[in-house]
């Protein structure tokens, strides 16, 4: 056994006759590899095609979002939340606003809470569509990503009509939302979901039951419930291993206190189960959006807040069920307009921890299948 001084990764010579000795091979996967879903580098130690060890190398995308938040007023900081999990900006903003509101004792109006539920579930759908589409293209299927991105475009177009931007919407505000729905937006939203439900049935028939997809994912990357909890996994990663935990139910916040959520749980714990949980959550999010549209109360969309937001001295933590798991925002306030300390609990970063454990003993062909099932976003890992 020898250790490479540059990488710190061990190599081992097999106990074989002289002339037949083999050595572990180091393979860099990324940080430019398209299937690493961002600038993630995996240093793989291989014996033949079997993964012996894996060392994830992160930090290529680091932008210091938490330190930026500490140097921006609380009113201005919400804009930077879009850049963390950039596939779920609405949910990021809801977590940030919720933390500030909790610290200041502000309760958004019921209409604002229902609007947040609606746009948050639409954002969850959009994020899961990217997860499913890119996962299938990682495994060699091209049609699903075209269909999933087509439907995601419909959601982004409605976000553009709502907040003026398709991607980094910056629509949520402390105490409520930026403004109410434009004329005709609610009817357009209902028409979208009518068509989207048909499209989802078509997408499900295309993927589920495909022999190649099932052979690449079933029984691969298994996580048992105890292991999932030991690694602090949350979101679809946790629920696919049979653990019924969802912050919208277990620690309900805002409109989720009035709108019940059917938690989607699978028992298999493999890559296929994680795919199925996300597909089932898309269907559940459609139902929640329809409930929000049907029960949308009238009244104001925002409560009056001070021009300068100055939470009292102390600390606060507010977590939401984001598309990838528990997204938490932690603040320490010294009573000024600026957070004294800001910390984000990014589910992508936490869920990535288990990757080396999952890859050991699998073949190289399984690496992409396992890593894609984690649904990580490097903006949230390297925040």
What would the CATH topology be?
Answer: Cytochrome-c3 Hydrogenase, chain B
List the total number of helices.
15
Helix content: 40-55%
Any idea of the CATH class? Answer: Mainly Alpha
CATH architecture: Orthogonal Bundle
Gist of the model:
The protein is built from 15 helices and ten strands.
How would you sum up this structure, described in words?
There is one protein chain. The two termini are about 35 Å apart. The protein has about 375 residues and is of the alpha+beta class. α6 (about 185-205) packs antiparallel against α11 (about 270-295). The chain has helices at about 65-70, 75, 90-105, 110-140, 145-165, 185-205, 210-215, 225-230, 235-240, 245-250, 270-295, 345-350, 355-360, 365-375, 380; strands at about 1-5, 10, 25-30, 40-45, 50-55, 170-175, 175, 315-320, 325-335, 340-345. The longest helix has 29 residues, at about 110-140. The chain has a single domain, classed as Cytochrome-c3 Hydrogenase, chain B (Orthogonal Bundle). The strands form 4 sheets. It has a 3-stranded antiparallel sheet.
């Amino acid at each position: 056994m020898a250790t490479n001084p540059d990488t710190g990764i061990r190599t081992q010579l097999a106990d074989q006759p002289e002339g037949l000795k083999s050595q572990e091979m180091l393979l860099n996967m990324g940080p430019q590899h398209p299937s690493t879903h961002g600038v993630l580098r995996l240093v793989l130690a291989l014996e033949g095609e079997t993964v012996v060890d894996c060392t994830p190398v992160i930090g290529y995308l680091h932008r210091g979002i938490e330190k930026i938040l500490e140097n921006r007023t609380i009113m201005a900081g919400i804009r930077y939340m879009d850049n963390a999990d950039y596939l779920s900006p609405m949910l990021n903003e809801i977590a940030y606003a919720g933390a500030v509101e909790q610290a200041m004792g502000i309760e958004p109006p019921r209409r604002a809470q229902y609007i947040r539920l609606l746009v948050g579930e639409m954002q969850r759908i959009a994020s899961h569509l990217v997860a499913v589409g890119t996962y299938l293209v990682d495994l060699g299927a091209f049609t699903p990503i075209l269909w999933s991105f087509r439907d995601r475009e419909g959601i982004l177009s409605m976000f553009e009509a709502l907040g003026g931007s398709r991607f980094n919407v910056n629509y949520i505000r402390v105490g409520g939302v930026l403004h109410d729905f434009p004329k005709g937006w609610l009817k357009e939203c209902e028409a979208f979901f009518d068509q989207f439900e048909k499209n989802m049935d078509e997408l499900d028939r295309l993927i589920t039951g495909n022999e190649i997809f099932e052979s690449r994912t079933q029984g691969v990357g298994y996580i048992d419930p105890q292991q999932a909890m030991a690694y602090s996994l949350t979101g679809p990663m946790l629920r696919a291993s049979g653990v019924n935990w969802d912050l919208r139910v277990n620690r309900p916040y805002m409109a989720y206190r009035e709108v019940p959520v059917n938690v989607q749980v699978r028992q298999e714990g493999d890559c296929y189960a994680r795919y199925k949980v996300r597909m089932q959550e898309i269907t559940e999010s459609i139902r929640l959006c329809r409930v929000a549209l049907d029960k949308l109360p009238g009244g104001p969309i925002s409560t009056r807040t001070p021009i300068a937001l100055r939470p009292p001295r102390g600390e606060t933590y507010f977590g939401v069920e984001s598309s990838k798991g528990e997204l938490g925002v932690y603040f320490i306030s010294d009573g000024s307009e600026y957070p004294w300390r800001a910390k984000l609990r990014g589910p992508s970063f936490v869920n990535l921890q288990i990757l080396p454990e999952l890859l050991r003993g699998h073949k190289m062909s399984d690496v992409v299948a396992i890593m894609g099932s984690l649904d990580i976003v490097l903006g949230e890992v390297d925040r």
